[in-house]
Backbone:
């Protein structure tokens, strides 16, 4: 009898089954609430309302030019028949199931039933799949195109060292916009490399109104007198002398000479923005260059820059951790409930401190880095400020929670002797806090070093700043060097932190 009386009595339904079903059919979850299942009803109302709003939103994006709701869904069905049709069918079925579930919840022998929530999860999963634009087919089909740059990232060491180079080149002038006086073919000098372009004038590639590339004129480049069986790079120089390597099919234009040192190549004139102030004939120049490595191996610029930025990253993490600990330790005592529970004044300080720490911790270091860049400008100092602010909030929370979990016996013993608040902290709290403080501090140092590689993406200095520049320039080998050193540094710091943790914790 005692066991039976101790069980929770079921809440009596306020309405009959049919009324609850009709109520939930009108407003999802309302019937469950009237049946005494308050939490279940609110959960169904929130989840079904969210899924339906997301469905309307996706239909609007798929058919944003249509006016009526019905027309939008018809257009969305035409564009994404499987996705839209499946979600509409599941939503209708869920709505009916919701009404039936409300009717069932009025029975005395009702059971929870998780099937309806499984369907809701499946609907959210389908919405998430479409919203996040997951395309497994595209991932598989475009893998061959991604393998060349990925291989450069995975094994980038060709860019780590270099040799002094010797350049053999020949070029031809190209007039932008053909007229009655196109450039003459260059004069051929015996024993020297020679390059000619046919025609010697044409139009550059351009962007149309929809930002699509309109291909320019096609030039036929003919070269001879170069070193045989050697890779030859094609370069382009505009009328102001700015040089760059043109691309075709996402790759830099290169050609291999034959056994006689000759080649023939079709080149589409590249995109180049001509400034409005340019006057007169615009003469550009196309060049074929063979670059030969001579002399001993020397450290290349990408490796030098990566080593310097990596050291900057490590010290950014170290300085941010140091300043974070310096400010977080005193703040953590103010955020510990067991130390601040003496009066309403101290409890007010406790709640204020906790609230500020939660607000600061909720803002990601990337956002703090953007704010710091506006404050002190680009560079590692902005990164240190961002990491320090976030470290103070995170360490303050961790330290305070560790203080709240210490053994209260020593505190009570010290307080029984008439010790002050500061003496209690010094002799009863601090000795118990050394191991968790050291552990949390080392963990935060590890996090700061990892984060300092990311905040560089928004101008906070460190290796991340260099990495994003390499990626924007499509220099995948140099980017790979940076990625490798990030991985090596993180692994080394993980080993060092584990050793320190074993000695002090």
Residues:
């Amino acid at each position: 009898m005692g066991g039976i009386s101790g069980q929770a009595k079921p809440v009596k339904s306020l309405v009959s089954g049919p009324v609850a079903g009709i109520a939930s059919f009108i407003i999802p979850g309302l019937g469950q609430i009237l049946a005494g299942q308050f939490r279940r009803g609110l959960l169904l109302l929130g989840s079904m309302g969210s899924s339906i709003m997301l469905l309307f939103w996706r239909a609007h994006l798929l058919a944003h030019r249509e006016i009526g709701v019905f027309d939008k869904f018809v257009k969305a069905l035409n564009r994404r028949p499987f996705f839209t049709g499946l979600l509409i069918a599941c939503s209708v079925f869920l709505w009916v199931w919701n009404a039936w579930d409300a009717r069932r919840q009025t029975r005395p022998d009702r059971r929870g039933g998780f099937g309806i929530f499984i369907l809701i999860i499946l609907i959210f999963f389908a919405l998430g799949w479409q919203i996040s634009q997951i395309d497994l087919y595209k991932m598989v089909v475009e893998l061959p195109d991604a393998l060349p740059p990925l291989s450069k990232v995975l094994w980038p060491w060709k860019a780590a060292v270099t040799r002094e180079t010797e350049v053999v080149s020949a070029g031809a002038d190209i007039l932008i916009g053909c007229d009655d006086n196109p450039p003459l073919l260059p004069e051929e000098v015996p024993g020297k490399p020679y390059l000619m372009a046919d025609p010697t004038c044409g139009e550059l590639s351009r962007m149309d109104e929809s930002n699509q590339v309109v291909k320019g004129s096609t030039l036929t480049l003919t070269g001879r007198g170069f070193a045989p069986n050697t890779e030859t790079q094609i370069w382009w120089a505009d009328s102001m002398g700015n040089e760059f390597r043109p691309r075709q099919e996402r790759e830099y234009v290169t050609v291999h000479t034959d056994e006689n040192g000759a080649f023939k190549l079709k080149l589409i004139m590249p995109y180049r923005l001509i400034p409005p102030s340019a006057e007169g004939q615009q003469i550009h120049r196309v060049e074929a260059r063979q670059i030969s490595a001579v002399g001993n191996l020397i450290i290349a610029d990408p490796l030098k820059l990566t080593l310097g930025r990596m050291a900057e990253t490590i010290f950014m993490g170290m300085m941010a951790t140091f300043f974070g600990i310096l400010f977080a330790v005193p703040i953590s005592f103010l955020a510990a409930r067991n130390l601040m529970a003496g009066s309403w004044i101290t409890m007010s300080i406790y709640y204020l401190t906790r609230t500020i720490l939660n607000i600061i911790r909720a803002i990601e270091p990337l956002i703090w880095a953007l704010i710091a860049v506006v404050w002190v400008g680009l560079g590692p100092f902005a990164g240190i400020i961002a990491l320090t602010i976030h470290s103070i909030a995170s360490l303050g929370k961790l330290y305070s929670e560790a203080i709240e979990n210490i053994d209260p016996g020593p505190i009570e013993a010290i307080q029984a002797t008439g010790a002050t608040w500061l003496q209690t902290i010094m002799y009863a709290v601090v000795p118990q806090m050394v191991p968790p403080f050291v552990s949390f501090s080392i963990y935060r140092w590890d996090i700061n070093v990892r984060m300092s590689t990311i905040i560089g993406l928004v101008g906070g200095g460190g290796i991340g700043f260099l990495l994003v520049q390499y990626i924007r320039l499509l220099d995948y080998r140099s980017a790979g060097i940076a990625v490798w050193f990030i991985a090596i540094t993180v692994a080394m710091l993980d080993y060092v932190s584990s050793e320190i943790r074993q000695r002090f914790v």
Observations:
- The two ends are 52 Å apart (CA to CA).
- Confidence is low (pLDDT under 50) at residues 1-8.
